[in-house]
Amino acid sequence: MEEILLISSLNEFAFCERRFALMSIEGLWEDNEHTIQGSILHESTELSGYTTTKGVKLIRALPLYSSTYGLLGKADTVEYDGKFYIPIEYKKGKKRQFENDDIQLCAQALCLEEMFSTAVPYGFIYHAESNKRRKVFIDQALRQLTIETIAKARKLLQSNITPPAQLKPRCRGCSLYDTCLPKLTDPQSRQHLLNKYYFTLGGGHGN
Description:
Low-confidence stretches: 31-36, 38-42
Order of helices and strands: EHHHEEEEHEEHHHH
Structural class: alpha/beta
Number of helices: 8
Radius of gyration: 20 Å
Largest sheet: 7 strands, mixed
Mean pLDDT: 82
Distance between the termini: 66 Å
């Protein structure tokens, strides 16, 4: 049996494979202002149940699973209009330039399709910063990207090996920045620091 993957962990993998490994393989976690704000935002969706507004049923904290892809998780909210189940994922900030949020939403859609034997053509990501929701089409390209991400994340999990760091601009906002230490563990960044150190040391001796 394939190892179960949490849907939320696909977001972490797509954002940074080392972050995924630190969390899923090594069991490390640290909060920062971004994760705390995200947790506060999700508190409004954690109470399971449903309400009906204008003929649309809003299902909160719906458990999700897929035996096909070995996924387990929870949808913040699912809208059901009598025809389609539409997942809605809540995010605290504006749309990112990365595809990790869209991949997470698509994984939710794959679960809903399997659970209810129906197509999920699109979903929404609600961005709290702008108080707007963004429509995401669950097209073939996104489906393929998501399925590939599932396979790559599972392969990394089974390898039980944490990848080396790669220092990128996005690292600064990561809650695991002080644990990962990308400036020291990224080979190129480490070499740069060493070169800088030896240059300074040599310059000091030359004075």
